[in-house]
Structures are given as C-alpha cells and as structure tokens.
Design brief:
The complex is a heterodimer of chains A (373) and B (276). Chain A is α+β, with helices and mostly antiparallel strands and 373 residues long. Chain A has nine helices and 20 strands. Chain A folds into two domains: 227 residues, Rossmann fold (3-Layer(aba) Sandwich); 124 residues, OB fold (Dihydrolipoamide Acetyltransferase, E2P). Chain A is elongated and about 75 Å long. The chains are: A alpha+beta (373), B mainly alpha (276).
C-alpha cells in the first residue's frame, strides 16, 4: 500500500493552462474519486500521475519517492482504461499476466496469481478466449484482473464504467468497491458520474477548470458544499438556486422570487448574521428533498406552479418554473410510502427544512452559511 | 421483386462490368495468343488450333533463359519487399507513436509524397551513374536497393495508416505494464499490424515483380528480370508474339497466387481505418 502526494502539479499546453496547480494527498488504502464536468482536467490529472502525460510543473510523490519525471513503465501503477485497452491478439490469461511476464516474475507465481484473479473476478473458464469473444462486462473484469495480479503501488481508473449499460454499471460499481475493500489498494477513480463518485469513494475531489473545488467525504460535499459549484454539481435532481437579497431582522428572510423565511437554529442565524451584511446580494440554494409543502399560502412561502411530475416508484418529484428557472422538489410520501401527486397547473406553497439551505455569495460563490470558512 | 429489379439494373453494376471487361479483355487476348502459333497471331485468326509450343520453347528450350529471369524477379521482389516492410513498419511506428518533432514528420512524409509523384524514369539515369561508379551496376544489390527506395513511400504511407488504426491506449497500457517502446513495438504493435503488413507487402511485391523501367536500366544479362526479358522478345526483325504472350501469362502467376491467398488480408488491411 502506498500513498500519493501531488504538490502544485500543473499542466499547460503552450499558453493554455489546463491545470493551474493541484495539491492533493491520498492516504494508503484510500479510494479517491476525481469528479468534474468534461474538460475539468480530471483525466489529464490521472494521466499525469500515470506518466502518460508529462507534467509542466510541481512534484508527484509515491510513498515519498519523487516520480515526477519517471518513465510510466517504472512507476508501478496499474490502470483500467475507459476502452479497457485489452490486447486483442492475446487470450484472457495472456492479457492478465502480460505485465508479470514483462517483469520476469517466476512462472509458478504468475500461475498462482492468475488463478486467484480469475476466481476473484469470476472469469474461470474464459482464460483461453480472445477479448473479441467476451461481453462488455467480462472485458471490464479482464481489465481489472490485469491490474489486480500486478499488486501495484496505485490503482488508476479512467472512467471504466462508462461503456457498460446501466444495470451492469451498478453491479460493477459494487464489485469494484468490494474488491477495494478486500485488497485495500490505494485507488484513484476518475468519473464524470456523481453517482459513481458518491457510492464508491472514501473521499471525492471535485474539479473544475483544473482546480480542486472541494475535497472530502461524499456526505461532506453533499451536505456542506463550500461553494456554489460543488452544491450544483452533486445531487440529482440538482440543487435549486434563487438569486436575491438577504434580510437580517428578527428572523432570517430572503427576498428573491418571493419573500421567503429561512428557518434556522440559533447557531445558524448567528453565523449568517456574522458573515453577511443586511441586503447583501446572495444566491439561496436548497436541495429538492429539503423543500417542504406548506399547508396553506402564508407569508414567507414560495408559490410554485407545477408543470411536470416525475414518478420514479420509490420517490416522486414535481417541477415548475419560478422566474424562468426550473425548480424541483421531492414530494413527501406518507407512512404507507404512497405519494399524493399534484396535477400540472396546481400551485404548491413551499417552505424549507430548518438549517438545510445554503447562502452563496452572489459573486464569489462561497458558501456563507458554513462555519469553517 | 421490385427490389431485385432495381438491383439488376443498377447503373453502378454496368460501370463495374465495364471496368472488369477493360481489365479482363486484354488478359483473355494474351491468354489466347499464348496458345496460338505465330502465323495465327499475325493473321489475326480468332479461333486457331491450340498449341503448347510457346510454353515449351519458353520454359524448356536451351536458348531460353526465362526461368532464370523469373528467379531473378523473385529474388529482387522478395528481398526488397522484406526490407521495405521492415523499414516502413518501424518508421511508421516512430512517426505515429513516438512523437517526433512535427517538422520532421512533415519533411519525411512530404518527401515521400513528392518522390512518389515523380516518374521513376526521372531517377533512373542518376541511379545508373551512381551504381556504375560504385561498381554495383547489374548486381542484385543495385536492383534490390532501388526497388526498396522506389516502394518505400507507398509502403510507408500505408503502414502509417495501419499503425494509426491501432488504438494509442494499447500502447499506453503496455507502457504501464512495464514495456519499453521497443517492447511495445515487438509485443503489441507488430503482431497487430500483420494484416496491414500483408496488404502493404503484397502491393510492394507486385510493384517490384512487375517493374520494368528500373530493371531495364540497372540489370545485366545475369540479373535480368522477367519483364525485361519479355521486352527482349520484340526484336529488330521479328516480334515473337506467342513467346511474349506465354511469358506474360507465366509471370502473372505468382502475383495471382499471392492475391488469391492474400486477398483476405489485403482487403481487410486496406479497409482498416477506413471503415470502423
């Protein structure tokens, strides 16, 4: 097990800077997901760690050794590619053992590790097949096997699930996490899919424009986003945002599409009061599951005219538009788990769960309702 | 039914048949001439009694060196093809995957293209002088080296295409698996480009086998290749049409055999990259 340290690692193609400088430490045995929209530099960062892309500045250390300029063949890292990159002219067994044979490991050891990997990945009986005779899921497992047998310092995954169908993807997700728990290998997993990141990662590093927006556990990023980007990126349907001004009085109120009450505990109110000016321009963010239905139209609620209703079986969402922006809320279910669905055109009156809303600085996007900033 | 009718009268078929006729016509004519007596050929008789005399004279007569000429063609074509393939495959891998400076690639491929566009005869004079000065005129070395130079541009272009069709991720995976670039070439790229090499090799072989201009000027009596020998059948006082036809048919056979056996690879190789 190894740990990885990135110190001010940067990448530029000529004048265009893709990654201005990333600091990141990954602990031994940790599973870290690099998440971000396309073009955020997450794949580039992974390829720089692997040595497939030269770095423009900074230091990469594995277990304390500086490998910033080491050849990829000397880095002892294993990678699962998006396309799996199985060698088409080799059988499953040859694919899995290729790296071991290249390193001149004893045939007996190779055979043992191959048997282990085949068993672990349920690939027994397929060892003589060529990749073209395998299904997508089997190919994915062979690619995993290729990494496992090497017992490398670091596992790298470059969106390895994006070529699988939805059902297989969730199965494989569990499998990868299960394998990780068994092997305790330090892993970096690149994905643009927040569900993959939320379900598999010990920690998520969220990237945008080559900068880490926030790094922390999935709960931390979801419940305590440091900025508007993080808040908007994680969660599906995504967080609702309203632009407006903050009113600091006896209670917290938000003058947006309507005058809305911000139900808050004493601590939260004090925190916001300390960090914000009265009348300050802010963005209010509330997740769909933190919006509540008020029984009647009262001052401080937000009217929402329902346009569409999505019933997903276990849960249901209603969507409507307020001042040109789509707002979604999760509809409450009763004790029997049944949901009373509103009709399109119906007007719902919304309030918020106490302390579950966020206030973001209108310009910098910083979360003003968090203490640790 | 309508579909079948439509298919039958497709104008594209007409073009294809016309094209086939254009190629097959002369071949059938040569084939029929090779089985005719000289007098029937000169009289323009369409249906003449069949004779094997042309073939007997060509292959078994003491005055004929044609088997030797065929062997010369074989030596030159096989060895030059092997050398061309080795150089072109290594060069293509270097160009495509080792990221040499862009200007170097442009210079090399640009030169290859220009060289390929100029008629071979432009260079033959210079080659003649060069080999004569080096004492290599009329040797296999001269013929083979010249065929290598002549066929390298096309083969290089083809091999660049084939190697580009091998996903870069395979190269990267092999690098992470501990391969040096040399090992990547030997273990991954080479086995995966056999199809492309078969295609490019077949074309290089046929080009060297059927070359006339180079061999005419650089070969001697001992190293004379089949196409040059065929030309010698047309002499000042007599054109030996029958012998020429028979020699043409015989010299066509290796290329035909190669195409028949290698067709699968050639077609697959030439289509690789074009169609996913």
């Amino acid at each position: 097990m190894s740990y990885l340290e990135l110190e001010n690692v940067s990448k530029a193609y000529g004048a265009s800077v893709v990654i201005p400088g990333v600091d990141l430490t990954i602990e031994p045995g940790e599973f870290v997901c690099l998440v971000g929209p396309s073009g955020s530099g997450k794949s580039t960062l992974l390829r720089m760690i692997a040595g497939l892309e030269p770095i423009s500045g900074g230091t990469i250390r594995v277990a304390g050794d500086d490998i910033s300029n080491a050849d990829p063949s000397d880095r002892d890292m294993a990678m699962v590619f998006q396309s799996y990159a199985l060698y088409p002219h080799m059988s499953v067994a040859d694919n899995i053992t290729f790296a071991l044979r290249m390193r001149g490991i004893e045939p007996a050891v190779i055979a043992e590790r191959l048997a282990q990997a085949l068993k672990m990945l349920k690939l027994e009986g397929l060892e003589n097949r060529k990749p073209k005779d395998l299904s997508g899921g089997q190919r994915q497992r062979v690619a995993m096997g290729r990494c496992i047998v090497r017992q490398p310092k670091l596992f790298l995954f470059d969106e390895p699930l994006s070529n699988l169908d939805a059902k297989l993807r969730s199965q494989t997700r569990h499998q990868i996490r299960h394998l990780h728990d068994e092997l305790k290998a330090t892993s970096i997993f690149v994905t643009h899919d927040q569900v993959e990141a939320m379900t598999m990662a010990d920690r998520i590093a969220l990237l945008n424009f080559g900068e880490i927006q926030q790094i922390g556990s999935p709960e931390e990023l979801y419940l305590r986003p440091r900025n508007r980007f993080t808040a908007g990126f994680l969660g599906s349907p995504e967080m609702n945002f309203f632009s407006g001004r903050l009113e600091l009085g006896a209670g917290l109120r938000f003058q947006g599409p309507a005058l809305m009450d911000l139900p808050a505990s004493e601590g939260r109110r004090a925190l916001v009061a300390a960090r914000c000016q009265p009348g300050q321009a802010v963005d209010l963010g509330v997740r769909p599951e933190h919006l509540l239905l008020a029984d009647a139209e009262t001052p401080g609620t937000l009217p929402l005219k329902v346009q569409t209703v999505e019933w997903l079986g276990a849960e249901a969402y209603a969507f409507g538009t307020v001042q040109g922006q789509e707002i979604g809320l999760r509809l409450p279910s009763d004790r029997a788990q049944t949901v009373t669905l509103p009709h399109p055109g119906e007007v719902l009156h919304l309030t918020m769960q106490p302390d579950s809303w966020h206030l973001f600085d209108a310009e910098a996007g910083v979360n003003l309702s968090l203490a640790d900033h | 039914m309508r579909h079948a009718m439509k298919k039958r009268f497709h104008p594209g078929n007409l073009v294809a048949w016309g094209y086939a006729l254009l190629i097959l016509g002369p071949m059938v004519w040569i084939l029929s001439n090779s089985f005719k007596r000289q007098i029937d050929i000169l009289m323009g008789t369409s249906f003449a009694p069949m004779t094997l005399v042309n073939y007997k004279q060509l292959l078994f007569s003491r005055q004929s060196d044609f088997l030797e000429n065929l062997a010369n063609s074989g030596i030159v074509a096989v060895i030059s093809t092997v050398i061309v393939l080795a150089i072109a495959t290594l060069a293509a891998f270097t160009i495509v995957r080792l990221q040499p400076p862009k200007w170097a690639v442009w210079l090399l491929l640009g030169w290859a293209l220009v060289f390929h566009m100029l008629p071979t005869l432009t260079f033959v004079g210079s080659w003649y002088v060069m080999y004569s000065n080096a004492g290599l005129h009329g040797t296999y070395t001269a013929l083979i080296l010249t065929q290598v130079v002549h066929n390298l541009p096309t083969t290089l272009f083809l091999m660049v295409g084939f190697i580009m069709a091998i996903p870069n991720e395979l190269v990267q995976a092999a690098r992470l698996d501990g391969c040096s670039y040399g090992q990547v070439f030997a273990r991954i790229v080479l086995p995966l480009s056999f199809g492309g090499m078969a295609a490019a090799g077949a074309l290089a072989f046929i080009s060297a086998w059927s070359d006339f201009a180079i061999a005419l000027n650089l070969s001697s009596r001992h190293t004379m290749t089949a196409p040059v020998a065929i030309a010698t059948f047309a002499q000042e006082h007599e054109v030996r049409y029958g012998a020429m036809a028979a020699a043409s048919v015989v010299s066509m056979i290796p290329a035909l055999v190669l195409i028949l056996f290698g067709q699968r690879y050639v077609i697959r190789g030439l289509m690789a990259g074009a169609v996913k």
